[in-house]
Amino acid sequence: MDLAPSPPLGSGIFTGFTRLCKGLAVILIGGYALLQFFPSAVSYLALIPARTIPFAWNLLTAGYTEQTLPGVAIGVVGLLFLGRSLEPLWGSREFFKFIVVVNFLISICVFVTAISLYYITTQESYLYTPLSGFHGVLAGFLVGIKQIMPDQELGLFFLLKIRAKWIPTLLALVSIAVSFFVPESASYLPTMLFGIYTGWLYLRYFQKRPETGLKGDPSDEFTFSSFFPEFLRPILDPIGSIFDKIFCGRRLQTSIESRGLALGGDPLPGSDPIEASRRRERGAKALEKRLAAEKLATVGIKGVPDGDDASENV
């Protein structure tokens, strides 16, 4: 038989990117390149609140238009690596739907905020500053990571370890703090914050889960107050209950009860389909990591056969 050389141990880091993520990455790079050759195109692609009424399409195009090289680099890297974790669990259709819906909701929120700030401050910069970038959707992806593996510890800058459920909150705090010291970054702040909020809103109430037949994630680990420290939750939980009544009503409660009731009327242990689905997802991800680690360890021990062994095998 033919003997193929073993792949380098570090090659797995840059593999496994989905076709959809690669295509969206090309769009981000292409949009940045277009602005370099035709700078005037920013007036048609970015969100400029004063021109949104005649050019309403910029509510969609702004999220895929990067104006700076660091912005497109962060957008592409974040899309590829976060998408590699989220798309297999959500499915390509739901993953793409999340991007489109969250991007549109972010643009609507940013537009309303800019108009409101203009009427409050009468500063025209709120109306004519081009706003764009994929960073809002990336912030929404981090909410998805919080939902899927909230207790997974992630390393930041090779020094600090933090649980995934606190990543969106840390991002919001850092973005707010930086905006005080770097005024230019303040234009990114609304997009970032609305990305976190609309990402949670979509995943909490509207994302369709084919394995359960339900929409959203009603678990206690994914409430609005879960983004905040424990001592603030008694204050925020009543606010979160208002969202539950607006978006869910009795639909979700009735659906869960109909699936999980025992003969005596008490829910069966582990009958919550959402929680069961999340356990399966976590187990599958943990198993995948373990198998990958074992495969790398095996490759490292065996190595590539030498010439004599190869000739005998042939």
TrEMBL record:
Transmembrane segments: 24-48, 68-86, 98-120, 126-145, 166-182
Any matching Pfam family: DUF1751
Keyword Ribosomal protein: no
A GO cellular component annotation in the UniProt record: membrane
Locations listed in the record: Membrane
Gene3D superfamilies found in the cross-reference section: Rhomboid-like
Topology class, membrane: Multi-pass membrane protein
Keywords: Membrane, Transmembrane, Transmembrane helix
Keyword match Transmembrane helix: yes
GO-annotated biological processes: retrograde vesicle-mediated transport, Golgi to endoplasmic reticulum
Protein name: Rhomboid-like protein 19
Species whose genome carries this gene: Apostasia shenzhenica
